[in-house]
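Model it.
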Amino acid sequence: MSEAGDSRRNSIELIGAKAGTAMPAEMRQALHLRGLVPTSIENFSKQELRAYQQLMSKSTNLEKYQFLAALRCLNVNLFFRMLLNHFRDIVPLIYTPTVGEACLSYSHIYPFLYPFRTSVGLFITLDDTDCIDTVIENYRRSMPEPIDPEITVITDGSRILGLGDLGINGMGIPIGKLQLYTAAAGLNPGRTLPIVLDFGTNNERYLNDPLYL
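Modeled.
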């Protein structure tokens, strides 16, 4: 019984992450969603309009960065559709200059950027070197589709933009770069893999920060 329940939840999460309110009625019926979501079936243009209005309502670029990070986890198709249609507006929010501000605060905002059940990439420490196969297998199991990455961007966080050593907070850079590569080159976002090598930091600001991850 639990396996069937898990399978149903996985299907709902996978389809919801790609369709959201555009999910057809027959699909909602098959997934036993009747009464659990609004009945309106929208097209992707209306989804994008709502998302863009929400984005523009945020008062700071960091708030916009946080909204976009959460949107990508909730509905990856909608995220990239909006990015492509508003490229000039959104690129400075997902990469420079806003990503620098996000990296400086990454340990403080990380739990609010992505749902906890969503993997954003690999965080590899020195303690993981003897069990790297387990780390990779954990990542594969966390993905909604069983596909392997084709491209990765890796950082050790020691030289982030012009900000210097940010340690694990540098994860925002490979995430941002791969979003740009996906939008510009048409890559499958499920085949991109951000990696941070968390080998420590010499930055006193973060060594003295109780919230540093």
